[in-house]
Write a structure and sequence with these properties.
Blueprint: H1 4-15, H2 17-23, E1 30-31, E2 37-42, H3 56-75, E3 79-89, E4 97-108, E5 112-123, E6 131-142, E7 155-156, H4 160-192
Parallel strand pairs: 1-7
Antiparallel strand pairs: 2-4, 3-6, 4-5, 5-6
Bound molecules: coenzyme A (COA).
InterPro entries: Cytosol_ACT, HOTDOG_ACOT, HotDog_dom_sf, Thioestr_dom
Keywords: Hydrolase
Protein name: Acyl-CoA hydrolase
């Protein structure tokens, strides 16, 4: 959970993002396609849960790996997972499925990037079309050698789909900040009212 002063600072950043970026030294933008990545993996018995289908954590690891590769490629250096939200599992994944994890940068802030991920599965030895089995949105922060956030190149959405994803990511960013601000306010109110320390 972000401390309150950070939530406020980030809300301010979001509101002032365009102004801040216009005064910051220019970093050339990078098109979405420059870092878009697909990670593929065949599921085996070692990937299963007690029900015999693939463990959700195995898929989440692949999602984080693919998104991390995209964030590193886009930002041109190390990037760490700051948050993962809206991970949806739409269909079970089975042993023998060839899973494709497709990731791209949807949105960039000052040092953070939202990476959108789609998970597709097809039988490894059949030519039937792959179906979507999951999706996720992750926020990565680009960091320097000391682990401190560093500025990232703005992403340049290319297609109409990229532009829609950029706009949707901005909505999610606003909601993340608003949700955290509301939670911080509730906690402070409960402490002030003597319900919790
Ligand atoms: C992510 C991290 C670098 C942020 O550092 P910080 O000192 O809090 O820096 P800031 O508050 O300036 O945040 C940096 C950016 O990340 C974003 N961010 C930070 N925490 C976030 C979260 N939980 N969710 C979404 N975005 C987040 C901020 O909005 C900011 O974006 P912006 O620069 O584009 O406006 C730091 O918390 C960290 O190192 N976390 C551990 C990451 C890690 O190890 N991940 C792997 C887990 S094993």
């Amino acid at each position: 959970m972000w401390p309150r002063h950070k939530v406020e600072a980030m809300t301010d950043q979001a509101e002032q993002a365009s102004a801040a970026q216009s005064t910051a030294p220019e970093i050339p933008g990078k098109p979405t396609s420059a870092s878009r990545t697909t990670l593929s993996h065949i599921m085996t018995h070692s990937d299963t849960n007690l029900l015999g289908t693939v463990h959700g954590g195995v898929i989440m690891k692949l999602v984080d790996d693919a998104a991390g590769a995209v964030a590193g490629r886009h930002s041109g250096g190390p990037a760490v997972t700051a948050s993962m939200d809206e991970m949806a599992f739409l269909e079970p994944v089975r042993v023998g499925d060839l899973v494709h994890v497709k990731a791209q940068v949807n949105w960039t802030g000052r040092s953070s990037m939202e990476v959108g991920v789609r998970v597709l599965a097809e039988r490894w030895n059949e030519s039937t079309p792959a179906t979507q089995v999951g999706s996720a949105y992750l926020v990565f922060a680009a960091v320097d050698a000391d682990g401190k956030p560093r500025t990232v190149p703005p992403v340049l959405p290319e297609t109409e789909k990229d532009k829609r994803r950029y706009q949707e990511a901005q909505i999610r960013r606003t909601h993340r900040l608003a949700r955290r601000r509301a939670i911080m306010e509730l906690r402070e109110r409960r402490v002030a009212e003597g319900y919790e320390d």
